[in-house]
Amino acid sequence: MKIGRNDPCPCGSGKKYKKCCLNVPKEVLTNPFLYHEQFIHNKVVKAPVINQMLLDIHDNQDELDVKDVVSDYLKAMNYIFDYADKNNIHTLKEIDEADLIGDFINNVIGDFEDVILNLDKKDYDLNLINDYIDRLIRTFDLGDNIYENCLRCKTHNLFKMGKYETGEKVMLDLINEKGNSIYPYVELVDDFEMAMDLEKAKYYYDLGLKQKNLKDMDVLEEREFYFK
Prior knowledge:
Elements: H1 26-29, H2 32-42, H3 48-60, H4 66-86, H5 92-98, H6 105-117, H7 126-139, H8 144-160, H9 164-177, H10 183-194, H11 198-209, H12 217-221
């Protein structure tokens, strides 16, 4: 496929090719299986130290101590938050367009979320993680999916710390605010099952099943085995 200099960049940034990934090899750029890894290694960025920190995590995460991984993610994200505050930036798209790092910010948030979900309270101070989540929500206008995932992570952390009522309230507030997803019910079922409160887990399982208008009901129905 030939890419003209003034064509939209195949990376999906919305910029012209000449202003974006002109220096990325075409055989990589046009191959979706190769592009992501090559993109984050080749892009010229404004925050090279932060970018290298994220690259080191990307390339060596299995060999790194989880505390170091979390600390580096937090350093990177706090830098991005400070930049957004200083420059009156409120969307993730604007952060991508600022070219601070070589990866899309959505990917960084998602990768960090995967790390957070596997943390135990002995691995890291989960209050600091929830502070990060709160700042992410305050700083950017997040889409529904990212917003929901952030609050689910926060809830899960609260349950890990034994703060069941606070975690429950986070999900109930989300249900009242949005009411468009089955996943807050799934989160409450999973977290109360983790807390060995099967009565509460079953309550939210049954309540979720009553939400007939929501998609992905099968994800909740898969939890039926908790109660057998």
